[in-house]
Write a structure and sequence with these properties.
about 90 residues, mainly alpha, 5 helices, about 55% helix, about 0% strand
Length: about 90
C-alpha cells in the first residue's frame, strides 16, 4: 500500500551526519511530542528503565516551553528570553 502524497515529506540530509542514534532520538521525541507515554517510549527504545529515557526529555526545550505556558499566570505574556546582539557578542568574546 502506497502512502498518500499529502503525507510525503522531502528531506535533504546531504552533508549531514545521520546515525542510527539520531534516527532513534528523533523518532522518540516525535512520539513524546505526540503524547505517547514515556514508559511506552522507553520500552520501544529498549531502555532498561524509564530513567534512561529521561535524559532525552530533560534536554528538550519544546517540552519545557509547553510546561511554562501551562503555568503562566493569566494575562502575563510568556516568551522565550532572546539576548540582544551586544550580549551575544560579549559572550562570544569570552
Amino acid at each position: 500500500m502506497e502512502m498518500p502524497a499529502q503525507f510525503w515529506v522531502e528531506i535533504n540530509i546531504e552533508g549531514k551526519r545521520v546515525t542510527p542514534h539520531t534516527l532513534r532520538h528523533s523518532t522518540a521525541m516525535e512520539l513524546l511530542h505526540s503524547g505517547v507515554d514515556q514508559a511506552v517510549i522507553a520500552l520501544w527504545l529498549g531502555h532498561e528503565s524509564v530513567e534512561t529515557t529521561q535524559i532525552y526529555i530533560h534536554a528538550d526545550m519544546r517540552l519545557k516551553e509547553n510546561a511554562l505556558r501551562q503555568v503562566t499566570a493569566p494575562g502575563v505574556k510568556s516568551s522565550r528570553y532572546r539576548p540582544d546582539d551586544q550580549l551575544l557578542a560579549f559572550l562570544e568574546s569570552l
